[in-house]
Specification:
The structure is a single chain. It contains 1 helix and 4 strands. By secondary structure, the protein is an alpha+beta fold. The chain has one domain. The termini are far apart.
């Protein structure tokens, strides 16, 4: 079953794709049937630049949760060491 669940988010950063590094301004995060990953459903992340070019990621639910945890731990440690808070 298609979920059609999509969460858009504005971003500030960069991603490296086929054209090299590009500025990322937006992401669309969804949970649906993947285009390429051999999974029934996947967390899909499309990182989009100002021209509409994208870098896409498809992750299993377990992999997505592991990535979220690693991101949280990395932010907490980095902010504690640098004294910088979340933006």
């Amino acid at each position: 079953m298609c979920t059609y669940i999509t969460e858009p988010v504005d971003l500030e950063g960069s991603a490296k794709g086929a054209r090299g590094w590009q500025r990322i301004e937006r992401a669309h995060v969804s949970f649906d049937h993947p285009q390429h990953a051999p999974l029934d459903h996947a967390l899909e992340i499309d990182l989009i630049d100002g021209s509409g070019a994208r870098v896409a990621v498809e992750l299993s639910a377990a992999s997505a949760r592991a990535l979220i945890g690693a991101m949280e731990r990395s932010l907490e440690r980095g902010e504690a060491e640098t004294g910088e808070g979340a933006a």
